Amino acid sequence: MAVATVNIAARTNEPFHAEFLIREDGVAMDLDGLDLRMHVRPAAADGRKVLDLRTGNGMLVVLTGDPARNLALSIPLDVLRTVPAGTYVHDLKVWGGRVIWQGSFTFVAGVTR
Predict the structure, then answer these.
(1) Which of 20, 31, 34, 77 could connect to 62 by a Cys-Cys bridge, CB 3.0–4.6 Å?
(2) What are phi and psi of 62, to 5 degrees?
(3) Quick one: DSSP state of residue 110?
(4) Which residues pair with 19 in a beta bridge?
(5) What does the pLDDT read at residue 1?
(6) 50 has pLDDT over 70
């Protein structure tokens, strides 16, 4: 499976929630039971993690029973408030396996906070 590019933008003054459909060969991937992780960093080679999202901490949620989407990305407001505005890089990986997607993650400073 080729690595897709997914660019995401979130505001730092409101919770973020988005749902995705990840396909393999045109068919929705079965993500149930997988340890999915997404690190957000200033650059790929940078050791600092701005965010550490994973199925284990509830910020990546595998959705079942809906053919239109199979993964939710949810970042609570208290977490977003700690992220400096800017554009970072991220990828979504099956831990111990392959990268599903990569791209940019832009955080826009909210005015009303």
Answers:
(1) 31
(2) -75, 125
(3) P
(4) 72
(5) 64
(6) yes
Residue 9 to residues 15, 20, 105, 109, Cα–Cα distance (Å): 12, 14, 6, 11
What angle (nearest 5°) sits at the alpha carbon of residue 113, between those of residues 10 and 108? 25
Across 21-45, b (16+ Cβ under 10 Å) vs e yields: ebeeeeeebebeebebbbbbbeeee
Report the 10 Å Cβ neighbour count for 74: 15
Return the DSSP state at 81. T
**Residues 1-30 pLDDT 10s:** 688 999 999 999 999 999 999 988 888 888
Alpha-helical regions (H) of the chain = 77-80
pLDDT at 27: 87
